[in-house]
Amino acid sequence: MSQYRTFTAADAVEYARQYGQQADPQALVSADEIGDGNLNLVFKIRDADGVSRVIVKQALPYVRCVGESWPLTLDRARIEAETLLIHGALCSRHTVQVLHHDPELAVMVQEDLSDHHIWRSELVKGRYYPLAAGQLAEYLAQTLFHTSDFYQTAQLKKAEVSRFSNPELCQITEDLFFSDPYQHHERNQFDEVLLPQVLALRDDAALKLAVAGLKHRFLSKAEALLHGDIHSGSIFVAEGKLKAIDAEFGFYGPIGFDIGTALGNLLLNYCGLPGLFGPRDAAAGREQRLQDVRELWLIFADRFLALCHQHSRDATLALPGYAEQFLQQVWTDAVGYCGTELIRRTIGLAHVADLDSITDPEMRAECQRSALNLGRALIVNAPYIGHIDALLARIRQHG
Known about the structure:
Elements: H1 9-19, E1 28-33, E2 40-47, E3 52-59, E4 62-63, E5 67-71, H2 75-90, E6 98-102, E7 107-111, E8 117-118, H3 119-124, H4 132-146, H5 154-163, H6 167-178, H7 195-202, H8 205-220, E9 224-226, E10 235-238, E11 241-244, E12 251-253, H9 255-276, H10 279-311, H11 322-347, H12 353-356, H13 361-381, H14 388-398
Antiparallel strand pairs: 1-2, 2-3, 3-7, 4-5, 6-7, 8-10, 9-12, 10-11
């Protein structure tokens, strides 16, 4: 029986030889630990020519950036692997392939994506992938529809909700999205220049009431098996290709949360572009991000509705007009969750390079204020932003 131990590079190589599905396992000779997240070790396993062939990922029993004072369950590795396996079966083209996983060692072996790039890094560099927004929309539509009540039987759905109960990782989301940014907390991180705006957010009764509603829906709406952390750092892109990775936050939750998180990361880039590029390039990039936002929602909505109309298994939910009514609530949720992503990534624990890599302090602060202002506007006004063009108008209004 497997017993947990933290892998060394040598352990990772040996494990990849056993489970990496390589034609010549002994050709794997070295490993580089490349994990830059907060929860895992990630090893690139290379052959004698230095070519990366496979990835070995192991969950740590604590939050990496904090240390052993913030312990975490290792069961999240099982949840991540099984979420990716399910999502891969539903949308293999846009989900990283899991070759093997061991829940006791909290380790999995994945396909190597060295020919891809992290989408956030590409966005920060100003590199455009014209198919990416549509491909992400397809991934979200396929995975969220097929794990929802429209498609799964009630009995299977209830069993799956239990199997993917992920209380510790959900607690992190609940704290970082809905609690920490709106109070004094040691995990919050922001430049002193933002303090007046941070204090204003903490005293904003209308904002906090809207956030309470978003948190309650996050806690109570088990609508589909979410990725749970589908930001631009959890997506690999290449020319004509996109793959989602890092699903350790997977659980059954509100569909609008995954959509809102994806939209929020495009808008974080939108807010940061004036600090990353000159005026002309920034303006062109911002317009492209708005088109990405529009495309992401419209393609998702079109595909999700088509799946509902063609493949819904519940006769009541298949009634004409119900899927459209449901999707309108998903949209409202998504706009609100998008706003929480903007705020928490600006003043909470986990920041993004779209803002933090801006070298000029004054411009960085201006872009951060823009993200905070936009985030608040989306959260408070989500019930009144009825469609995608109204959202784009609201964003342009905030500059």
